[in-house]
Specification:
- With 123 residues, this protein is an all-alpha fold.
- The protein has helices at residues 2-5, 9-22, 32-35, 41-56, 67-93, 98-101, 103-111, 113-122.
- The protein contains 8 helices and no strands.
- The radius of gyration is 16 Å and the shape is globular.
- 72% of the residues lie in helices and 0% in strands.
- Helix 2 (9-22) runs parallel beside helix 5, helix 5 runs antiparallel to helix 7 (103-111) and helix 5 runs antiparallel to helix 8.
Length: 123
């Protein structure tokens, strides 16, 4: 049980807290009411189940004992989380910018988690 007390899930808590605190400040197309408006119910359910699974599984992944691999994984996690937070900040602080109005900018909060999630997988 001890390895699971210090799990990869602990690393995700700041990201989950960020999402809860700042979702309401994202541009209108990313607000829950607008985002989910025309998406079929079955897809919404599948998305929410997948999101729940991705949020819960890291709590069952112990952090590596190997110090070198742990440092590398934590470094990549920090880089990925920083990119993720930055993608939100640009959307919140500069919503009229070219980046925030582009598909790549608007979708950045959706694809940048691949870096920090991938880092969790190396743990």
């Amino acid at each position: 049980m001890r390895p699971y007390l210090l799990s990869c899930g602990l690393l995700t808590i700041p990201i989950l807290a960020w999402n809860l605190a700042f979702t309401r400040y994202l541009p209108p197309p990313l607000t829950p009411a607008e985002f989910w408006r025309d998406i079929p119910r079955v897809i919404v359910i599948g998305e929410n189940l997948s999101r729940t699974l991705v949020s819960v599984l890291p709590f069952f992944m112990p952090i590596r004992e190997d110090a070198r691999r742990r440092r590398q994984g934590l470094a990549w996690f920090g880089i990925g989380a920083s990119i993720y937070f930055a993608s939100w900040l640009v959307l919140m602080l500069l919503p009229a910018s070219g980046w925030s109005r582009s598909a790549a900018g608007l979708l950045a909060p959706a694809y940048t988690p691949s870096v920090w999630l991938g880092a969790l997988g190396t743990q």
